[in-house]
Amino acid sequence: MQKANVIVISDAVFTYFDPLVEALDDGESVKAFLNEFGYQPPAIVDVFQEFNGVLGNVIDIIDDIENNLDNKSEQEYLELFVKVVKTLSDAIKTANNLSNALNSLYSQDFLNATNIVNQLPGQLINYLTVKALEQQFPITHNILRTMGIINIEFVEQNEPHKVSYTKREIHWDKIGDYISDPASAIETTYNWTGAEISFDKLIENLRLLGLSLNLYSEITSVDPQALQVFNNGVDVVTEQNARTIRILKFPLLGDLTDALSVELYPIYNAAKTAPVGAGLGVFFDPGNGLEIPITEHLTFKIKYTGDSRLNAGITLKHGEQVQMVTNVFNNGTVNGFELKNFVPEFIFEKEDEPIIIFNTPIGAKLQFKSWAVRMGFEDNESIFVETDIKALSLILSSKEGDGFIKELLPADELKVDFDFTLGFSQKSGFYFKGSSALEIKLPVHIELGPIELQSAVIAIKPGDGKIPIEFGTTIKGSLGPLSAVVENVGVKFNITFPPNNSGNMGPFNLDLGFKPPNGVGLSIDASVVKGAGYLYIDADRGEYAGALELTFNEFLSLKAIGLISTKMPDGSAGFSLLVIITAEFTIQLGFGFVFLGAGGLLGLHRTAKLTPLAAGVQSGATANLLFPTNIVENAPKIISDIRDFFPILQDHFLIGPMVKIGWGQPPIIDVALGIIIEIRTDNGGSIERIAILGVLKCILPDEDKVILKLQINFIGAIDFTAKYLFFYASIFDSRILFITIEGDMGLLVAWGDNSDFVLTVGGFHPRFNPPPLPFPVPKRLSISILNESWGKIRVSGYFAVTTNTVQFGAHLELKFGFDAFKIEGSVGMDVLFQFDPFYFIVEISGKVSLKVFGAGLFSISLKFSLEGPTPWRAKGYGKIKILFFTFKARFDETWGERKNTKLEPIPVMPIIAKELNNRQNWEAIAPAKRQLLVSLREIPEPGADQPNPIVLHPLGRIKITQRAVPLKVTVDKVGNQKPSDANHFDLVDLPNQFDWGSDVMESFAPGQFYNKKASDLLTEKATRKYTGGKYITAKDGGLRTAKMVVRHVRYELQTIDTAYKRGKKRLYRLLSGLFRAFLMNNAAAKCTLSNKQFTAKQPFADKISALAGSYLVANTSNNTLYQEGAQFEHFTEAEAFVYSEIQTNPKLAEQIHIIPASEAMTSAA
Predict the structure, then answer these.
(1) Where do the H-state alpha helices sit in 69-163?
(2) Is the pLDDT of residue 666 over 70?
(3) Which of 175, 239, 317, 714 has a beta carbon 3.0–4.6 Å from 729's, enabling a disulfide?
(4) C-alpha torsion sign, points 201, 206, 207, 212
(5) Residue 130: Cβ-neighbour burial (10 angstroms; 0-12, 13-18, 19+)
(6) pTM score above 0.70
C-alpha cells in the first residue's frame, strides 16, 4: 500500500460520507436529504443521528492520514486501509439498523405510505456509493452506468408523503453476469431482445462516458442520409418521430473534414415506430493520424492500417448477423472492406512506480506498471475489446504457508512477473488471449537457487452469484533425495454480493486467503527405491485423485491410482471411490510361461460404461487401466479416462481382478487381462454386467530385431440389464517387417425386445446402415505395404454378417510421384448376398490418373456391377481422358438362361401347430399390481389326461406365443421357401369359458418373411415387433365380492407447533439393519411389502420411462396422413396395411410410405 494510494482512499472516504455530514447540520438539511430519496417527511427530525459515531471514526482516520502521512510504513498504510474498510462496514450496519429510529420518530401513516423502513437503508448506501464514484472516479462510474450496473433514472411521484426524485441503484450482482454471459447482460440492460430497445438510454450513457474520458461527445439531430443507410435504404422519419430521433457523436473532433467522427444511429422497425437496433458509423482519415493525451499518464490513440480514408459502418440487431455498409456519410452501399484495421486504443503508462492492485496481510501483493485498452472488429463481423496489462507482478511471502510451503519458498519475498491480455468479443465472451476461457497459464521459468517457478496461472470462474479470482504459480524444488512440484499455489479472493449491503466491503463481500495447491508431485531416486507420486486436489468438485509408482531393486514395481469423490453428480454430498492397484514382477511357471504381474480394480458407488470402454479400446485408452506405464506422467489422462469409463452411480459396486502372463524368455507373447464385475447392492446383490478387458502383444523374435509385432486391445462384455453381449478388438501399432497392420472386429448378440446379431471384421458395406452398436464402427482391416511421401500402397477389406445379409469387400490404393510427376490409382469391390431366391451383386470400381506439373495428362475410370446367377447382368460406366479429350461409354448387358433358383414351397401350418403344442410357449401370468400373499391351490401331478397342467390365478391370464412365423400379417416366405398352404395366420377359436386378450409381440427378422430388394436389405432394421401370440383370460373375469361394506372415514385435525420435536424410534437404524442382514436375499426380503417402508422414503426409485413412438401411413408428396385410421401402434401393423393397399391398387407403391407419427405434417386446410 503506497502513500499515493492512501491519499486517494482518504479523499474517497471523505467524499463518500460528505452527504451525511451535510445532512446532520440541521433539521432542514435532514428533510432535504430525505427528498433525495423521494420522501416528504411530515416533521423535521434527525433520523441520521445514529451515524455520529461512524462519522467520528471517519474524521479520526482522515486526521491520522493528514498528520502522519509521511511518517508511516507500508504496513501501517495497509492497516489504515483495513480501518477504512471497517468504517464502511460499520456505516452499512448502521444504515441497516435505521428501522428502529424510523419507527419511533415518524407516524404510522407516513411509514405505511412510503415503506421507508424497508427501502431507506438500501437507498442510502446506493446513493452514497454512486455519488462518491461520480465525483471521485467518474470514468469508473460511467463504465458501470453504461454496463447497467449503476442505474440512474428520474421517478415522478404525486402520492402523499412522496416527492419526485432521481433514483440511484447499484446492481453488483450483474458483474458476475457480465463475466459469465456478457452478451445476455448487455441485451438485458438495453432491452435488446424486446420490441423496442432503450436507444436513448444507450446514447446518453455513452455520452457521459465520453465526457469522463475527456473526449468530446454530444447527442444531436440526425443526418437523414446516414440514417437511411443504416435502415437498409428506407426513410424511417415520420411526423411522429421527426423531433425525437437523436444520434450520438462520440467522440467528434470538429466536422467530417477532420481526422475522426464516430456516430451511433437508431435502426427502426418496419412500422417506423420504435428502434430495434443500432448502426455505428466511422469516418477516419489516416493521413492525419490521431493521438490525444487525456491525463498525464493516459493517452488515446487510433491505429489504422488501411491505405484510404475509412468511411464505413455496421448494423447491430438482435437475432441477425452483423451487416457492414460503406460510404455511410455519402451514399451507403454494402461492400467488402477492412473495418478490422481500425483500432482505437487507450494507453496508460507509469514507469516510475507500480500501481498496487492489492497488498494483503497474508503476504501476497499484486501490482503492475502499464495497461492498454483497445476496441476493434473481429473479422469485420463482431466487436472485441482487449486489455493488455504489462509488467504484472505477483509477490508471495512464505510466512502464512504451512511447513512444506515454507520449506520450498525462499525466506525473502518471491516475485513472479508476467504480461497478459484480457478480452471480450461477441463471439467468445470474456477470454484470456492464448486461452479459450477465463483461465490462462503463463510460462515464466524463473530459477532461484534450488527453486524454479515454472508457470503462473490466473483464473476467474464465476458462478452461483460468486466471482472467485485466483492467482497462482507452479513451483519446483528439491528436498534432499526428493524432488517436489507444487502446482498452482498462491492467493485467492472470492467476491460475493450479499443482500442488504451486508458485505465486509459494503455492497460486496471480499474474502482473501491463501490458495492451497491443486496438486503436489514427488519423486525419489535412491539406491533401493525409485519412483514418483502425484496428488491432485479439486476442492470445488469435491474430488481427490492420486497416482503412485515405486520400483524396488529393479524387481518389484508397484503402481496405484485412485479417485475419490465427495460430491454426487447432482451436487449433493456423498462418497464414491475407485482404486486400481498393480504389482509387476517375474515368476517362472514352467513350460516357458511367466507370471508377470497381478492387480485389481475396486469401485464403490461406481458403474462401468461399456460403450466408452469400447471406444477406449479403439483409441488405446483402456491400456492405461491394465498395468499402466509412466503412471505419474500420464496421471491426468488416466484420471480423466476413469471419470468417463466408471462414472458415479449410487449403490453400484465394481470389482476387477487383473493378471498378466507371458511366454518365452524374455516374453515374446504376453497377455494382460482384467475382469470387471458390476454388482448392484440395493436389490440383493445382483450382477448387472461383466466385462473382460485385455491387451495381447506378440513380438518375434525379440524387440531388437522385430519381424512380427502384433498388438491387440480387446473387450468382451455381457450386459444383463440391456440384454446383449459383445466382443470388440482393435489392432494397434502392429507390423510384419515394414508392412503395417491395422483394423477392428466386432460381434454383437442381443436378445429381448431388441434382439439382433452382427458379426463384422473391418466394418460394413458402404451403403449399409448398421444397427445401434455398443462399440465403435470397426475400422477397415488393412495393410500398408508402402507409406512414404513419394509413394503409397495400401490394401483394405471387410467382412460382415447380419440377420439380413452377408457382405464383404476389398480396396486397393496406390500412389507414386513427386511434385512434377504423379500417378494415382485405386480399385475396389463390394459384394452383397441374399439367400432366397439365391442372389448376389458385385460392384467394382477403379481409376488411374497421370499428372505432370499438376495438369492431368491421362486418366481412366471404370465402375460396373455384376448380378447373378442366370440371367447374368453387367452394367456400368467408363471414361478415358487424354489431355483435353474425353471418351465416355455406358453399358448394360444381360445374358444366360433364366433359372428358377427357389426352393420348393413348404406347408407352414404344421410349423405353427408344433410351436403352439410346445409347453414352453405357454405361461400363466399373475395379475399385475396385486400380491399373492397365500397359495391355496395344490398343483396336480402330470397324468395321461393332463401331461402338462397349467394353474391359472382367477384374475390372471395365460400367455401363448411362438417365434416361428409372425401372425396377423401376410408373409411372402418362411426362411428361404414360399408357404404352400397359407400366407396369413391368426389365432381365432377358444373354449366358451375363455376370451382372447391382447396380442403378444415378438421379435422377427423381416428379411426371413418378406421379399426385399438388395438395397432394402442394407438399411432394413435387423428385427421388428410382430404379433407372435395372444393372452387368454377367463370369460367375464373380474374382481368381485359377495358383500360390500360402506365406511365413512373422518379425519381429526391437530395443530402441531413449529417448536414441536418429533420423537425418533430408538435403535431404529440398528433394528432395520439387522432385519435386512438376517433376511439377506430370501423371498421375504425381496417381497414388496417387506420393502414398502424403505421404498416409501426413496422417491428417487420412481423413474421416467420413454415409450415407443407410433407410426402412420402418409403421402410421399407431403407426409400428410394417407387416410383416416391409418395410424398404428406398431410398425408391422402399418406395414401390413400398406401391403394390403398396394395389392388393391399397385399405383400406391410410389405414393404412400410409413413414417413415425412425430414426422407427420398436418394436412392443409
Answers:
(1) 74-96, 98-105, 108-114, 116-136, 138-147
(2) yes
(3) 714
(4) positive
(5) buried
(6) no
